[in-house]
Amino acid sequence: MFVRTTDPLLRPNSLRALGMSSGSDPIVRLNEITYKKGKEIYGEKEPAEYVYQVKTGAVRSYKLLSDGRRQIGAFHLAGDIFGLENGTTHRFTTEAVVDTTVLLIKRQSLETVAESDAMVAKNLLGMTTTNLQHAEDHMLLLGRKTSLERVAAFLIEMDKRLTAAGVLALPMSRRDIADYLGLTLETVSRAISHLHELGVLGFVGNTQRQIILLDRHQLASLDLQP
Amino acid sequence: MFVRTTDPLLRPNSLRALGMSSGSDPIVRLNEITYKKGKEIYGEKEPAEYVYQVKTGAVRSYKLLSDGRRQIGAFHLAGDIFGLENGTTHRFTTEAVVDTTVLLIKRQSLETVAESDAMVAKNLLGMTTTNLQHAEDHMLLLGRKTSLERVAAFLIEMDKRLTAAGVLALPMSRRDIADYLGLTLETVSRAISHLHELGVLGFVGNTQRQIILLDRHQLASLDLQP
DNA sequence: CGTACGGTTGACTAGCCTCAACCAGAGTGG
DNA sequence: CCACTCTGGTTGAGGCTAGTCAACCGTACG
User: Fold this and answer.
1) Where is the domain boundary, B112, B142, B172?
2) Residue A195: which domain range?
3) What secondary structure does DSSP assign to A35-70, as a single string?
4) Strand D: which residues have Cβ below 7 Å from it?
5) Considering chain A, what is the average pLDDT of its residues?
6) How many Å apart are CA A50 and CA B110, to the nearest integer?
7) Which residues of B touch A184 (CB under 8 A)?
8) Residue where a domain terminates, one of A119, A142, A165
């Protein structure tokens, strides 16, 4: 799914790559902003002025119902691009999960480049398709998987995306995970405890924020796929 | 969301429009195929050879888990384009819900055109974004809405897309609706009965496949949005 | 005419949610 | 340095929503 490079900011689908013309001249300048934990980056229905790439930290993007129920559509980790809208307004609210630094680029400048540069247009389409694919898989999870399968799928996804040396240091809280998986935080907690009892995972020290995956194969078997 | 024209095949995002160059010369030929009710159009993971547009009828696209649980990601009705993949393989299985005629176009020919024609590339991106937007909204429904809210949202969506003279003639079965909404067919049936009791909808004759929406305003209030 | 299919409804069950208590670690201020 | 509070996490008891299983009904169809 993602190409692994030593530096996530330099992989093919980076903002830098997006802003390159086919002739590989950097066309746009990248600015940098840091958001404190919990701070909003942009709100749903706000005009989409910028496109972002996570440099360090993590971002959640979500929708709210009027009574406060929340659905997180995606977590954006180091290297991920977000805020790429086609229309002129954002369709999610995004917040920093932890202290987070992002690169940003004016949406407008991207669009004008895409007009004339097929390479850039292709990159835009590719990124949108990646998002679509993730959303499609997530619909299956939300519509048809059990709580244990959801949590297993989540751990596998995060393992692929942010593991360092076999330890998952999850930046997000149980509540965030729950709102991503369409569950309650208690159910998430119970599922993780259950996986612990099964010997699929362990914890670093006493704190349970860091998880060691002990048996990836068994974990994968708990998440039904095709 | 959708532009209304008298003929759904002629609205802006049609296959015909897709196949036009900026100079509006028709570049590609459109073929036509008819599928009997229940017949598969293409399978998940099959190579994506064609892009389709529904001429008459309805199509469901879905994913399966290995134990048979099914999640329908979308219904495609007259005028809708589907099977537009960026990679080379399909990510859903699609079947005709009823007897259905589709137009088709070789994916390859579209791609080559998009290479050189910014207009076509823009259309492709726009359609992918429309699909993404639908998937994002559906995640919220699947993750956070109650059964009654889901069914109400479904009826509202179908009302927007296929109502003729205040009557919803649903082409799909209760099972299809259930697999679209992440419910069971019994729960869908009960929700519809409940809406009937509430006086929000009625039926044409004895058959309950055709639904009259009596109170769209009340229906909308049952589906929490922002 | 009999059968198959799709839909409805009822009785019961189960999985997840709600409410609540409790606990550990990180800050904070006296 | 210690008490205090706050936050995030776990766990238990009980309730509710949606799922399961099953019977029944009407229409369509061979």
Assistant:
1) B142
2) 145-222
3) E-TT-EEE-TTSB--EEEEEEESEEEEEEE-TTS-E
4) A 173-175, 185-186, 188-190, 192-193, 208-209; B 146-148, 182-184, 186-187, 206-207
5) 87
6) 30
7) none
8) A142
Residue in B116, B125, B144 closest to A86 by CB: B125
Q: Do B158 and B95 belong together in one domain?
A: no
Name the token pair of B98.
Answer: 């009823």
CA dihedral B94, B99, B101, B106 (to 10 degrees): 30
- A121/B121 touch (CB, cutoff 8 Å), yes or no: yes
Chain A environment of B110 (Cβ under 8 Å) = none
Question: What is the pLDDT at residue A146?
Answer: 98
H helices present in chain B, as ranges: 15-18, 107-116, 118-144, 147-162, 174-181, 185-197, 216-222
Based on the fold, state whether residues A154 and A52 are members of the same structural domain.
no
CA–CA separation, A62 vs A55, rounded Å?
20
Q: Protein B197 CA to nucleic acid D28 C1', in Å?
A: 27
Q: Which burial class, exposed, middle or buried, applies to A40 when counting CB atoms under 10 A from its CB (0-12, 13-18, 19+)?
A: exposed
End-to-end CA, chain A: 16
Cβ within 8 Å, pair A139-B73: yes
How large is the average pLDDT for residues A180-187?
98
Q: State the average pLDDT over residues B94-111.
A: 93
**B79: CATH:** 2.60.120.10
Q: Which of residues 77-96 of A touch strand C (CB under 7 A)?
A: none
Please tell me the predicted confidence (pLDDT) of residue B135. Answer: 98
The encoded tokens of residue B16 equal 């015909």
Rounded to whole angstroms, the distance from the CA of residue A76 to the C1' of nucleotide D18 is: 32
Whole-number Å distance between alpha carbons of A66 and B170: 29
Closest Cα of chain B to A165: distance in Å?
Answer: 31
Least confident of A78-82, B83-87, B204-208: B204-208
Q: Are B119 and A118 in contact (CB under 8 A)?
A: no
Domain CATH number, residue A155: 1.10.10.10
Cα(B64)–Cα(B92) distance, integer angstroms: 9
Classify the C-alpha dihedral A122-A124-A128-A133 as positive or negative.
positive
A128/B129 CB distance under 8 A: yes
